Amino acid sequence: MEKTANNTFRLWQEEGIVLVSKNFEVFRSLLDRTKDLIQRGKYNDAVVYGQTAVLYAFLRHCGLFVSQELEQLFVALGQKKIQTSLYSSSRNSVSQPGKVKNILHVATSVYSVGGHSAMIRRWIQQDDQRSHSIVLTQQPSVHVPKSLKDAVFKSHGKIYSLVETIGDVISWAKRLRTIALSADIVVLHIMPADVIPIIAFSNKQQSPPIIFINHADTGMWLGASISDVIANLRFSGMRLSQERRGIAAERNMLLPIILNPTHRTLNRLEAKRILGIDENSILLISIARSAKYKTIDGISFADAHIPLIEKYQQAILIVIGANPSEDWSKAIQYCNGRIKTFPEREDVEVFYQAADIYVDSFPLASNTSLLEAGSYGVPLVSRYPYSDDCGILGADTPALDQSLIRVRDLEEYTTVLSQLVEDEKFRLSIGEQTRRKIVEIHTGSNWQSSLEDLYFQATTLPRINVASEPITDRMMISEVDALLPKILSYASGQDKINIDELIQGHPFPKTFAQQLRVWIETIKIYGFGRGQIQHLLPNWLYWRLRKLILAN
After folding, report:
1. First CA to last CA across the chain, in angstroms?
2. Residue 84 scores a pLDDT above 50
3. Most buried residue, 52, 116, 178, 220, by CB count within 10 Å?
């Protein structure tokens, strides 16, 4: 079985070499279009095309993890259009570490689910001796989850939304820069393609220290040129930042994903009873987004567990987030229903507490789920069929590097799982070791210590110098570059990318003619009565009206 999987990865590499070159050509054309629009003074359209270029490159890898050329265009635009006098002349170029009191978190958007938004909320809750505010660059404030709002307001911070600002994208960037006047440190939690902060903080000597959170380390993102420190969430991302993004060693730091302290409310037997599972069973669980479970050469995620479940009658596999487009029915039938699937859900604590073993999603790993499972004292197993040069394609965090069981092939996978099923003492020992490491590194005062180191470095280093000499991006094709096109297409769930749809889907201010076209297209598809007034009003007016309505 594993030989065919390895053959697949070799074929992916061969195909990937061709795809990377083609993707680079598309990216290059979008970048050239961006440059032309800036030269013609069409800044709104330039931002749309620039953001589309990076979003395309993130979804369809083009041999680049950073575009210094594109960032340089928007830095120059910001320096030209935003007056430096907005900043107080008394602001020091280097803040005093002991006086960091006000943190400004900048996010493209936030949601009620997902590790990205949870990290912002947990950060604010943990760092409770400081005031934390949030600026959303491309989302209205009405969509901020209540738990995040509560955390911000408890810290005496504020929430701002740039889409509620009158004017064009330059006005949005000016607004962000003005808000940052009162911040001691700015933390960028932005999506990979967000252009607004690049324009806003283009004048580095008159900006607060900027920390960039590298939460999307497998693809291209904007922000390297303006960020004083890059906070990587794992060692593989940290290595890639230095090798492929050109981040200097002193500016390249590690900040573990923060978790809330976990407290068991049920023992394993109680949790199994609640789930209707035999108390004597050995329960394997896996929890991830559906896109992370893909069939490789006819071998599905469920198929990979048939040898184990066939060998041990007490073994049961539960997968939460199983891909509905994947047909696991034969495997489920073959195992007499001892493979069970559930759609994606938020209430997963009882499953973690019932689990004896956690098995990672494949071919795409899920670091957050691994950490959450491990925090309950569950041993963790992950498949990693790639070479050591492809670290970002696997699972790793500071705690997992010391406790995660990684296997190279299906034979080793079944052997390791068999040992865990048979040896309860070994299983419990590995689980407890995993729990202790996660608590030690990813929670409470220990995580706070990592954060304080990050603040110190950001406030004591000189501001990063923005390159003035013209730069031209050059693609590179290594093993990881060749594998990424196929893997990222799985992650996005899209075989093809429609550039026109990416361009039309932007949130930036539109002319009335553009709004009218969108309104007509919406009516054609959905008919009247689907909130089409949104497409005829300026964004800022629509969202201000929504806030008034919701407030009443």
Report:
1. 61
2. yes
3. 220
For the record, the structure tokens of 23 come out as 């993707």
Q: What Å distances lie between residue 82 and 87, 195, 207, 279, 300, CA to CA?
A: 11, 15, 12, 65, 53
Q: In 10 A of CB 240, how many CB atoms?
A: 21
440-443 long-range contacts, Cβ below 8 Å, gap at least 24? 440/399, 441/256, 441/397, 441/398, 441/399, 442/256, 442/257, 442/258, 442/259, 442/371, 442/375, 442/397, 442/398, 442/399, 443/258, 443/259, 443/260, 443/261, 443/375
Q: What is the DSSP-derived secondary structure letter of residue 282?
A: E
79, 207 Cβ separation under 8 angstroms: no
- Which DSSP string do the residues of 194-234 spell out, in sequence order? --HHHHHT--GGGS--EEEEE--TTS--S-TTT-SEEEESS
- Amino acid residing at 368: T
Q: How far is CA 460 from the centre of its chain?
A: 28
For the chain, the residue count is 552
What are phi and psi for residue 93, nearest 5 degrees? -70, -20
Residue 158 and residue 180: Cα distance in Å, rounded? 12
Q: How many CB atoms are located within 10 Å of the residue 168 CB? A: 14
Phi, psi of 211 (to 5 degrees): -110, 130
Identify the DSSP state of 186. Answer: E
d(CA 75, CA 208): 16
Tokens of 264: 């068991």
C-alpha–C-alpha distance, residues 44 and 509, integer Å: 8
Indicate the SS3 state at residue 541: helix
Give pLDDT tens digits for 202-246: 998 889 999 999 999 999 999 999 999 999 999 999 999 999 999
Kindly tell me the burial class for residue 480, based on how many C-beta atoms sit within 10 Å of its own C-beta (0-12, 13-18, 19 or more): buried
Type and span of the H or E element at 525: helix 512-526
The angle formed by the CA atoms of residues 471, 475 and 478, to the nearest 5 degrees, is 140
Q: Which one-letter DSSP state was computed for residue 406?
A: E
Beta bridge partners of 358: 285, 380
Q: What is the rounded CA–CA span in Å between residue 291 and residue 489? A: 10
SS3 405: strand
Q: What's the longest Cα–Cα distance across the chain?
A: 73
Among 191, 195, 219, residue whose Cα is nearest residue 60: 219
Average the pLDDT over 317-341 and give the result: 90
For the entire predicted model, the pTM comes to: 0.88
Residue type (1 letter), 275: L
Tokens of 83: 């007056």
Task: Output 527-536 pairs: Cβ under 8 A, ≥24 positions apart.
Answer: none
pLDDT at residue 541 in the model: 65
Rounded-to-integer distance, Cα 201 and Cα 174, Å: 9
